[in-house]
Specification:
The chain contains no helices and 11 strands. The strands form 2 sheets. Strands 2, 4, 5, 6, 9, 10 and 11 form a 7-stranded mixed beta sheet that branches. The chain has a 4-stranded antiparallel beta sheet with strand order 1-3-8-7, with no helix packed on it. It is globular.
Length: about 120
C-alpha cells in the first residue's frame, strides 16, 4: 500500500506562486507515474499534470502548461508542482495520485492511490 500526503497549499494573490509537495510512504513506490489533479467546487476532478516516475516525461493540461511545472525526487519519493502566475480559476483542492498502470494516464479512474488533498485559493 502507498500513502500520499500533500502539503504546500494556501492563499495567494493573482500572479503569485505556490509549490505543492506530495510525499509517498509505505511500500517503496515503483509505479509508472504520479500526477496532480484538482477539483473546484461543484466541478469534477480534473487532470493537471503527470510525470513518468522512471523517465521523467511529463504531460500537462493545456491551460497550465506554461505556468506549472511537475517534478519528482526519486530518492525522496516526493512529487512537486511548482505553480506560477496563479489565477483565480486555479482555485481548487489539489490532489496527488499514483498509478501502476503503463501508458499516459490522465483520467482520475486510472489512478489507484490518492492523497487527501490540499486547498489552493487564489484571490483576485
Amino acid at each position: 500500500q502507498v500513502q500520499l500526503v500533500e502539503s504546500g497549499g494556501g492563499l495567494v494573490q493573482a500572479g503569485g506562486s505556490l509549490r505543492l509537495s506530495c510525499a509517498a510512504s509505505g511500500r517503496t513506490f515503483s509505479g509508472n507515474a504520479m500526477a496532480w489533479f484538482r477539483q473546484a467546487p461543484g466541478k469534477a476532478r480534473a487532470f493537471v499534470a503527470r510525470i513518468n516516475w522512471i523517465t521523467g516525461s511529463t504531460n500537462y493540461l493545456a491551460s497550465v502548461k506554461d505556468r506549472f511545472t511537475i517534478s519528482r525526487d526519486n530518492a525522496k519519493n516526493t512529487l512537486y508542482l511548482q505553480m506560477n502566475s496563479l489565477q483565480p480559476e486555479d482555485t481548487a483542492v489539489y490532489y496527488c495520485a499514483a498509478t501502476q498502470r503503463i501508458g499516459t494516464r490522465t483520467g482520475p479512474d486510472e489512478y489507484e492511490y490518492w492523497g487527501q488533498g490540499t486547498q489552493v485559493t487564489v484571490s483576485s
